[in-house]
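agent> fetching stored inputs for the FE2/S2 (inorganic) cluster docking request
agent> found them:
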Amino acid sequence: MTADRTVAPDAIRINGVDCPVPADPRVSLLDLLRETLNLHGTKKGCNQGACGACTVLVDGERIVSCLSLAVQHAGRSVTTIEGLASEAGLHPLQQAFIEHDGFQCGYCTPGQICSAIGMASELQRGVPSHVTRDLAADHIAPTHDEIRERMSGNLCRCGAHNGIIAAIRDTYAEAAE
Ligand code: FES
Ligand code: FES
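agent> prediction call returned; pasting tokens
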């Protein structure tokens, strides 16, 4: 993933809007999103990198925003769950989560969806996981095992995992075939 060179070095582009980098270098990206910008779709679960609820995309790569300082993202583009839908409707993966019952409480859902979008890009680029057999493959298929392994950093405690995996497979299987 390449950085967007049109973002000013003292700004962070968040869902297409440039925001000033916070003056306080201790502010995490998660707290900038939730507390300064009122983008509450990105959830705070553990606040220590263990649950994945705070996952967002930075220049298309998934990261846990609680472990990341906002100042580290100067000049970059951040996409949160609020930035995925368009005037045309929901992102296809958001729609698939609805169709496959991919959530119960829904607290983990924004992180799951952002994470899965980043994961799909990794599969497309042939980035291997622990369960990938062909390490030289250009593209990796979104198999059940690949999705389970790659989404293991996103916890859902109420047991919607099967729906989550079905939604991801449905959305990305066609693109991989
Ligand atoms: S809140 Fe960031 S990983 Fe749990
Ligand atoms: S849907 Fe409840 S924790 Fe994920």
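agent> quick read of the result: Strands lie at 11-14, 17-20, 55-58, 61-64, 77-79.
agent> awaiting further instructions
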